C-alpha cells in the first residue's frame, strides 16, 4: 500500500506568492537556500519550482512533517529540491553543517511565534555559524512593534497561541532584531505583507 503522507496548510497557498516576490528581490541570484521549519513542504516545492537557479534544502525537526515534505517532493521531483533534513534550530550543530554545503540564504516562515523563544535564539546562532558572508536570513510572520500589536487580528492570534503553549506568542520585532544583530546579522529591510505579516530580511556581515 502506498500511503500519501502529504499534509496541507491552507496559509501556504495564500502567502507563497507574496513571499516569492520578496525572495526574488532579496536573495542572491543563485546559490543554496536552507529552509528552517519547512512544515508540510508545500513552500519548498513551490519555491524550488520558481527559483530555478537556487538549490532548496528543506528541514523540520518533526518526523511526520519530514515525511510530508518527502511526499511533496516525490510528487514534484526536481533536481534543485533536496531531501528534508532533521534540523532543530535550538541545537548547536545543524545536520547540514557536516555536509560542507555553502549556505547563501536561510528562509524561516511562521516559526518564531509558534515555538519557544529559544528557537529564535537558536535560529540566529545557526545563521551566524553557517551563512556565507553576505548571506541572507529571510523571516516571515506576524510581529509586534515597540511592544504593541499592529492589528487586532494579530492580538487575537497571539492570545490563541499563548493559550495553546505559554512559551509561544507573537514576538516583538525589536527583540528579534537585537538577537540577530548580536549574531552579526544586520537588518536590511522590513516589508509589510498581506494579512498583517512582515518579511524581515537580515544580511550576515563579512567581519
Ligand atoms: C506553523 S508551522 C510553519 C511551517 C511552514 N514554514 C509554513 O509556513 O507552513 C511551524 C513549524 O515550526 C517548526 N518548529 C518548531 N520548533 C522548531 C525548532 N526548534 N526548530 C525548527 N523548527 C521548529 C514546526 O515543526 C513546524 O513545522
Task: Tell me what the structure shows.
The protein has 207 residues and is of the alpha/beta class. It has helices spanning 10-26, 42-50, 63-75, 117-130, 152-164, 173-182, and strands spanning 31-36, 54-57, 103-109, 131-141, 143-144, 171-172, 185-193, 197-204. The chain has 6 helices and 8 strands. The strands form 2 sheets. The chain has a 6-stranded mixed β-sheet with strand order 2-1-3-4-8-7, with helices on both faces. A two-stranded parallel sheet has the order 5-6. α1 (10-26) runs parallel beside α2. Helices cover 37% and strands 24% of the residues. The site of S-adenosylmethionine has 21 residues, from loops.
Summarize the structure.
With 207 residues, the protein is an alpha/beta fold. It is built from 6 helices and 8 strands; from the N terminus they run H-E-H-E-H-E-H-E-E-H-E-H-E-E.
How are the SSEs ordered, and which strands pair?
Elements: H1 10-26, E1 31-36, H2 42-50, E2 54-57, H3 63-75, E3 103-109, H4 117-130, E4 131-141, E5 143-144, H5 152-164, E6 171-172, H6 173-182, E7 185-193, E8 197-204
Parallel strand pairs: 1-2, 1-3, 3-4, 5-6
Antiparallel strand pairs: 4-8, 7-8
Helix pairs in contact: 1-2
The structure holds S-adenosylmethionine (SAM).
Helix share of residues? 25-40%
Structural class: alpha/beta
The hetero compounds bound to this protein are:
S-adenosylmethionine
Summed over residues and divided by their number, the pLDDT gives a mean of 97
Largest sheet: 6 strands, mixed
Overall number of strands? 8
Amino acid at each position: 500500500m502506498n500511503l500519501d503522507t502529504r499534509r496541507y496548510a491552507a496559509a501556504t497557498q495564500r502567502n507563497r506568492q507574496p513571499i516569492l516576490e520578496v525572495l526574488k528581490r532579496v536573495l542572491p541570484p543563485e546559490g543554496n537556500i536552507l529552509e528552517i521549519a519547512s512544515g508540510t513542504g508545500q513552500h519548498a516545492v513551490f519555491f524550488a519550482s520558481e527559483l530555478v537557479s537556487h538549490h532548496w534544502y528543506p528541514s523540520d525537526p518533526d518526523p511526520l512533517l519530514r515525511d510530508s515534505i518527502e511526499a511533496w517532493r516525490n510528487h514534484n521531483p526536481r533536481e534543485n529540491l533536496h531531501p528534508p533534513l532533521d534540523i532543530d534550530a535550538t541545537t548547536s550543530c545543524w545536520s547540514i553543517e557536516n555536509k560542507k554545503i555553502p549556505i547563501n540564504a536561510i528562509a524561516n516562515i511562521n516559526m518564531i511565534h509558534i515555538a519557544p523563544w529559544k528557537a529564535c535564539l537558536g535560529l540566529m546562532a545557526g545563521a551566524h555559524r553557517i551563512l556565507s558572508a553576505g548571506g541572507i536570513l529571510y523571516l516571515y510572520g506576524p510581529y509586534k512593534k515597540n511592544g504593541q500589536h499592529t492589528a487586532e487580528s494579530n492580538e487575537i492570534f497571539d492570545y490563541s497561541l499563548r493559550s495553546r503553549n505559554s512559551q509561544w506568542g507573537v514576538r516583538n520585532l525589536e527583540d528579534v532584531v537585537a538577537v540577530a544583530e548580536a549574531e552579526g546579522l544586520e537588518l536590511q529591510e522590513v516589508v509589510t505583507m498581506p494579512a498583517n505579516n512582515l518579511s524581515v530580511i537580515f544580511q550576515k556581515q563579512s567581519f
